[in-house]
Write a structure and sequence with these properties.
Helix content: 10-25%
Low-confidence stretches: none
Keywords: Endonuclease, Hydrolase, Nuclease, Zinc
Number of strands: 14
Structural class: alpha/beta
Protein name: MBL fold metallo-hydrolase
Mean pLDDT: 97
Function: Counteracts the endogenous Pycsar antiviral defense system. Phosphodiesterase that enables metal-dependent hydrolysis of host cyclic nucleotide Pycsar defense signals such as cCMP and cUMP.
Shape: globular
InterPro entries: Metallo-B-lactamas, RibonucZ/Hydroxyglut_hydro
Number of helices: 7
Strand order of the largest sheet: 6-5-4-3-2-1-14
Pfam families: Anti-Pycsar_Apyc1
Order of helices and strands: EEEHEHHEHEEEEEHEHHEEE
Bound molecules: the ligand Nc1ccn([C@@H]2O[C@@H]3COP(=O)(O)O[C@H]3[C@H]2O)c(=O)n1, zinc ion
């Protein structure tokens, strides 16, 4: 089975000309969403994917540019698509804060019997650091990565050979030793802050310090609106674009 990743958005949290960074893992048999930011439902609409065609959603962390579209997807499945539920693949601790700290405000509705995350989604807890076959042909591993100190955040290995950073601080050892040397990942999708101090994201300057054999595997995402000013200035790395499709190894 051939698998692709289609970027739904490639923008930062504050980008106005790119949708929030999220992606679809696609095959003839499935559409699995990686994150669902505030602008993701609009991007899904652009490419003609309806909420009932989403077979599952993977969540990296609870910033609004990664989960701000979940309420719309859940409400549309419930009210427009007559009580349909999609699968939500999430670590157990993240499921707790996703409901209590983010979704409950808009979605808690005991009058109609909706008071838990499970009332809206088929919640499937994925254990951290354990490669888990979530659908035929698709194995996901959530690994804990550092974004905001003391807050849960996960990057993903997809079928062991593709790394998707979601939002993370630069981690040279993870990229060089674990992702490339040990796991031999050929495709790395990495968030990138183009200018200024990173603090919570990898900066372009930091990523440019990587050896060329690592850089050439990296697609840059989660960038600001001034991305065009940096074309040709990203070493061996390339920008991935909104709605672009790349093949991923099984
Ligand atoms: N210490 C922080 C925390 C947050 N932020 C900004 O808020 C955004 C939240 O979504 P994000 O995609 O993680 O990017 C964060 C920063 O732009 C920031 O710039 N500095
Ligand atoms: Zn983000
Ligand atoms: Zn974030």
């Amino acid at each position: 089975m051939s698998l692709q990743i289609q970027m739904l958005g490639t923008g930062s949290a504050f980008a106005k000309t790119f949708y929030n960074t999220s992606a679809l893992i696609r095959s003839n048999e499935m559409n699995i969403l990686i994150d669902c930011g505030a602008t993701t439902p609009r991007s899904l609409h652009d490419i003609g994917v309806q909420p009932d065609q989403i077979d599952g959603i993977l969540i990296s962390h609870i910033h609004a540019d990664h989960v701000g579209g979940l309420e719309e997807i859940a409400f549309r499945l419930l009210y427009q698509y007559k009580n349909k539920k999609t699968k939500l693949f999430v670590t157990e601790p993240l499921a707790g804060v996703l409901w209590e700290n983010t979704l409950k405000g808009g979605m808690y509705n005991p009058t109609e019997g909706f008071s838990r995350l499970e009332d809206y989604f088929e919640v499937i807890h994925i254990e951290e650091n354990v490669p888990t076959n979530i659908l035929p042909g698709l194995t996901i591993e959530f690994i804990s990565t550092l974004h905001i100190p003391h807050k849960l955040n996960y990057s993903l290995f997809i079928n062991g050979r593709t790394f998707y950073s979601a939002d993370t601080q630069f981690n040279e050892e993870l990229l060089v030793q674990e992702i490339v040397t040990k796991r031999n990942c050929h495709t790395i999708l990495h968030d990138c802050q183009l200018s200024g101090n990173g603090f919570i994201h990898a900066t372009l300057e930091e990523l440019l310090s990587l050896p060329e054999y690592v850089q050439e595997r990296i697609y840059l995402m989660h960038y600001d609106d001034d991305m065009m000013n940096f074309v040709g200035k990203t070493g061996r790395m390339t920008f991935i674009h909104q709605h672009e499709v790349i093949e991923i190894p099984e």
